[in-house]
Amino acid sequence: MRVWFERHVRNALGALGQLSRAPVATGLTVAVIGIALALPAGLLAAVQGVQRLAGQWEDIRDFSIYLKPGTALEVARKLARELEGSHQVADARVIPAEEALAEFTADPAFGDVLRSLGRNPLPHTVVVRPAPEAAAEDLGKLKTELASRPDIDLVQLDTQWVARLAAMLDLVRRAVWIGTALLVGAVIVIVGNTIRLDIQNRRQEIEVSKLLGATDAFVRRPFLYVGFWYGLLGALVALLLIGAGVLVLRAPLERLMLLYGVQFEGLGITATTAVLVLAGGLTAGAAGAWLAVGRHLAEVQPRV
Known about the structure:
- By secondary structure, the protein is an alpha+beta fold.
- It folds into 2 domains: about 1-55 and about 165-300, no CATH class; about 70-150, no CATH class.
- It has 10 helices and 4 strands, in the order H-H-E-H-E-H-H-E-H-E-H-H-H-H.
- The protein has a 4-stranded antiparallel sheet with strand order 2-3-1-4.
- Helix 2 (about 25-55) packs across helix 9, helix 7 (about 160-200) runs antiparallel to helix 9 (about 215-260) and helix 9 (about 215-260) runs antiparallel to helix 10.
- The longest helix has about 45 residues, at about 215-260.
- The radius of gyration is 32 Å and the shape is elongated.
């Protein structure tokens, strides 16, 4: 086991030394791999950020129930207690007409108009927060049921945005995975072509090694480690690019979210994203090297 480990470490370090001897070509290849991996990973990080942001917008799902004018406040409170007992509702809060009137009167846009009426035209309101697991269809049925009650004047509920947001996120998520597959395929092609050129440049060395009795596995191993290093270094470059993008976008995004009264900390590289980028880079690098070596190494045979 120790001999096996030392042999592989020696091959890995030798492959890294080989790449360091051509810094310009290696840097260009690694940069291309990094950009190819950063594009889908950045989109994935953005989608995850939007999902976390949507989780902070729970109050947007709230809907209001306006009771008919003249309905007693106790009726509104009874309705709130009834709704809180439903599995579709997380919370129900009563806003008395007097409290709503005081709030609107304090607003210069409505204060003069409301004071001129001489009476309170606002009804008692029940603000309902749906449970997180409540589906849009269930909320629609609840709206229909509530609207049919004689003491309720209006149920203001908009569930279409929930379905639209879910549909858009699902579409973007699928597009990201398609783009990921295509760009990982491009990385495999890039690494494979680079390894192919390396095999051609070292053709005489490979022929001599085989002539001296080296097996295909022995000759193949350094090239596989070259693919490993290309994938790893490309993945690290991708993470650096994503991190730089996050730093550039964080400040303006935070300012935008503050305008909407939302504290947003969802933009960044999660552990899942980092692991996916590293795994994608290593897999693509190893796969490209394996395919190139398997196809082109067999063509290199010693001439006797």
